[in-house]
Design a protein that fits this description.
Blueprint: H1 15-25, H2 29-40, H3 48-56, H4 60-71, H5 74-79, H6 81-104
Length: 105
């Protein structure tokens, strides 16, 4: 058993677990809430834009700007790795599609 996958004898988290927890703690409560919402927004009734306004008191534009900034942070990746990786892939795909359209024009 290696130190990376075993807890310390006193029950303290291993260094890798501690660094993930520290990274997640570096996110503000609002940042974690935004990532959690984005991961499960479809569970809320009604339009997503209205749910964003109701929950965060932000316009949809501002929400997506904040979310886009979070995607570049390692802390967000530590908090919601599957979501962040998926949204990064979607962002890259959209960026490539826009670049291809510009080159054709």
């Amino acid at each position: 058993m290696t130190a990376a996958n075993a807890a310390e004898p006193d029950g303290a988290p291993t260094p890798s677990e501690g660094s993930v927890e520290a990274a997640v703690d570096a996110l503000s409560e609002r940042d974690r809430d935004i990532l959690d919402f984005e991961d499960q927004w479809w569970k809320y009734g009604g339009a997503k834009d209205q749910a964003i306004r109701d929950r965060f008191s932000l316009s949809a534009t501002t929400y997506y700007q904040v979310l886009n900034g979070l995607l570049d942070r390692q802390e967000a990746l530590a908090h919601k790795p599957m979501l962040v990786k998926r949204l990064r892939r979607l962002r890259t795909t959209r960026h490539r599609a826009r670049s291809a359209r510009r080159q054709e024009a």
